[in-house]
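Chain A, query sequence.
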Amino acid sequence: MFLVSWAELARSRPVSMVPSFRRSSLNPRRPGCIDPSLDDMYVLIPSLPPPEENNEPTDHLVSRIYYINAEQLNELQSLASSDGDKRTKLESFSAFLWKMLATYTADEDRNKISKMGIVVDGRARLGEGDQDKATAMGCHFGNVLSIPYGSQTIGELSEKPLCWAAKQVHEFLKPATTKEHFLGLIDWVEAHRPEPAMTRVYNVVKDDGPALVVSSGLRFPVSKVDFGWGCPAFGSYHFPWGGVCGYVMPMPSRVREGDWVVYMLLLEGQLEQIEKEAANVFRPFTFDYVDL
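Chain A, predicted structure.
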């Protein structure tokens, strides 16, 4: 929304979506109602133990961008849905990536726990059943997000089929796609103010397996970000957070409908494994893909 509005102002055009700064849209309920599952999803930062000394990782997060063809995404979705339950492309892609990261560490302790989180946008959910609030949330300036996550052993993830992994993704994701979940999350934040909190998937300790968060920029309107010199041929993200939890953000290709441009912040060894074992899916991004 910000970039689109900025582009419209740069071209002296009316702003198509005026941002809303109404904090009342995110007011907690009185009394609050908090599902206990939120305590498993989020943790207060002051409650975390101090970092272990002499525990510097031997591998470090690096950023790379890949291109994925629509045909490969359709194939992943087909495999992920082979048990009869149709999965979304994002669920299928996330499950495939989760398995790839588990395979990278499969030679280590197969009982280690690997975590995956997926970012869920709460704007549309909070506006359900209330047209005025739906309009306000559609223009809300700022993030309204939740990051549910799942945990599985490295052994199971590496051995079981993609449809099994996709089912695990679907099951941890589904409860966080409701209006009640986000209302409860607002109440949870209010109950713990002013303590800062974070999603538990990000908290990776010494004996944990690989962890990553998948977000989605697939609805980002790349074609509308025109500052006067034409629509961009390429759009991506750069999200260099610390720690060792990976971050992945797919976006739509500007050139070919159905293709994805995927920003990945993962450990260098994990990326090398992905490029080796899934080169047919993850193709390093080059200018050939922007059709200039």
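The first strand starts at residue 42 and ends at 44. The chain has a mean pLDDT of 88.
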